[in-house]
Structure formats: C-alpha cells, structure tokens
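User: Predict the structure for this protein chain, please.
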Amino acid sequence: MTLPKPGDLLENLPLTDTSSDGRALARLENFVVDVEGGIHGDRADEHIYRKKKNFAEGRVERIVTPSPDRIDPVCSHFGSCGGCKWQHFSYAKQLESKQAYVRDAFERIGKLDIPAQEPILGSADIFAYRNRLDFSCANKRWLTREELNNGASAVCNVIGFHAPQRFDKVLDIDRCHLQDDRSNVIRKSVLHYATVNGFEFFDPLLQTGFLRNLTIRNTSTDEWMVLVVFAYEDESKRIGLLQHLSDQFPYITSLQFTINGKRNDTFTGLDFVCFKGKEFIEEEMEGLRFRISPKSFYQTNSQQAYRLYQVARDYAGLTGKENVYDLYTGTGTIALFVARQAARVAGIDYVEEAIGDARINARNNGIDNVSFAAGDLKATLNEAFIEQNGWPDVVITDPPRSGMHEDVVATLLRLNPERIVYVSCNPSTQARDIQLMDEAYSVVKMQAVDMFPHTTHVENVALLVRRG
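Assistant: Here is the predicted structure, written as structure tokens:
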C-alpha cells in the first residue's frame, strides 16, 4: 500500500475509532489517520496535511455518509473554538466513548486487572453547566480559513478564548453555551464599554495593552463573581469600567480586580482587590456552604461535583471511626463533605489561599473534626504531619491532571491505609499512579462521572483496597 502524504485526498474513508483527544481515526492496514472534523461511524473524504512515521493527520473535506451518531452542533463557533470538540457527537455516544477511554487507560497504560465498571454518570445539563469561564482580551482576533481567504482583518478588540494551540490569537466569541447566559451579557458589556472608551486591549506577543483578562464565576446559589485583570494601573479607566459593571449588573455579588504585569496569565502571586460586594462567593451542598475566593479551585460543574463527591464518600466506606486524609483538598469540599461520617479528617493542599478558605469553611459550617495544612504534598506529607494527625485508615486523593508525584505515591504506600479513594480528572495519569501501587492495592470499584459534556474530559473515581 502507498502511504498517504501531505496534500493527498483520501476518498470515502471509513472512520472506525476515536482517539484519546477526541478526533476520529481511520486505519489503513498498519497505518492510522487522525482525522479532524470526523466522528466514529462517518465515511468521509480526508485531506492529509501532516505525515509522521506510522500515522498521518488530516481534516474532513466532505462527509460522504454521516455517522448515525452525528448531530448538528449548537454553537456557531464549533470547529474554531477548541472548547467543545464533541458538539457534533450525540451525548449518548460521548458517554460511551468516555467510559471506553477509562477502561483503555487502565488496561493499556496501567496494565491493571479491573472490575466491571459502573455505568458512567452523565450530566443532567449538557449546556450552561459550567460555573467558571476564563476569557482573554486581545487587540487581534483569530481568523478562520474562510475569513483569511476573504481578506478579513485581524485587527479588532476581542474578549474570548485562545484559539487551539495559539497563545497569541483569541477567538472572538459571540455566545458561549457553557455558562448561564448572563455570563455572555457581562462579557459583551465589558467589550463594548472598553472599546467605546478607548481602552487598549492586550497584545500577547508584544506584552502591551491595558485590558488583559476577564473571569466570570457563578454558583448554584446564584452568586456571581467577576474578576477583571489589568496589565498596569490606570486608575481612571479602571474605576470607570468597574463602576459600569457595578451599575449595570446588581446581581454581581463579588466584583474584584488585580494588576498583572507578568508574562503569563496565571493568578499566582497576584493579589485581588474587592471593588464591590464580598471577597468571595459561596456554593452549597447538603446544607454545607463553601467559600470560594478568586484563586480557590472548585469543580466547574456544581451539579456533577455533588454526584462525584457522593461516589467518593460512598467508596470511602466510613462508619464514624475512621481517620481520613484528604490530599489536594482545595477549599476543603471533600474533607468537609465526609467529615460527618468520620472520626477525623486532615486535608492538605499547595494553594495557601484555598487552605485559608477551607479553614473558614470548616468554622462557618461548625465542623470541628477537621484540620488543614498548606504546602507541597511531597514535602508536607511527612513524619511531623503523621505524628500530628495520626495514621490514616482511609486516604482520599484528588490530584491535578498531572497526577501524583512519585514521592507522594511512595508515601501513600508507606502509610498503608486500608482504603484509598482516587478521584481523577485524567484517567491516564490515574492508571499510571495506581499501577505503582498494584502490588499493595487492588482496584475493586470504578465509577466514571461526566463533568464536561461535549469535551473529551472525564472524571473517574477508583476504590483501592489493601491486598491481604
């Protein structure tokens, strides 16, 4: 067989699988084509634009026969914005693919023997489910291929999302369907006010410009936090924009700003100043209220977060006598959620501001059998911590996408708890970490939870029980 090369058009190609990044796959004997714009079950003509040793990358030029699972995407930005890669994929098939991805990660990466999976928990809301969106401000917009061909200008103030794999280009967003529509109204109001009043929007290449970022957060209790990030101080313009937001949107309960002169958009090292309202918003779960500050992490799908934490608590098997460690505790949501069923809970997280919120959350909810420590886990989870908090019967761990550091895994093995409940937003690193514990622990239960409809991301909870 002659292998395809860039510029080739492969006609009537069956797409028979789905990759871990959500793109469709076509197989030509021992050669794989990774197809942009297709889904499992399509037959399509593919334009090849890149070739490597044993695979090529292409994009759909024409759908010959659509997959029975193909649907019309809701968003007008589908195909340009990288946020919702699966809007053209039926939700039932999305869930099936995510469940298969979890099993593949454990069997292929972890090489683990796993039990039958519980059916994945789908999201009741597949739009307007997010409680946080982070927008970038820019003085140039991303142009689609059609716009480039038509000679459109990129010079334009925008507030939107970075184009896939492009830090220097921002896609102009008309409407994002992932958050309550009031988020769109606030964003458009900021864009209009700043443009009319001559604000200089940020240039990520030159690192110049005044208006830099906008973050909008909301909760199930209908509290709203708006964070405006400026690249430098201009008191008159800053106050003008913030007062405009305060006047136009009285439902904003926390309006804050910061000045970021760094060469990246992270909040690390930044101090937020409250212009209006409270310095935080609050989420509620089973009568518990959780304080969320600007830099605090909270699961971005509040409704599914509740179901995720229910699974974690159920897997912990608490009777009221257990000593529990909650690693990567964030604002203490899991720690406080399980505290009523445990003798004692100790939480650790590397974000000091989150731990500050966790302590306040414990106090405000009248929970006194928890304690929290801030610091890098591989350094903080040490002899002094164990001496102070006792040896754990159960460990709940919910690390970032990169998983746990190997030193933390080694410490877990030394702690030797009866049960480990591993909550993960990345089944690949979860499988890798669990494989390192396979001699001492067996996986007895697994439950995938879909927190992010229309994306390839999936949460997975695994229960590990000590062997012997």
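The chain has a mean pLDDT of 93.
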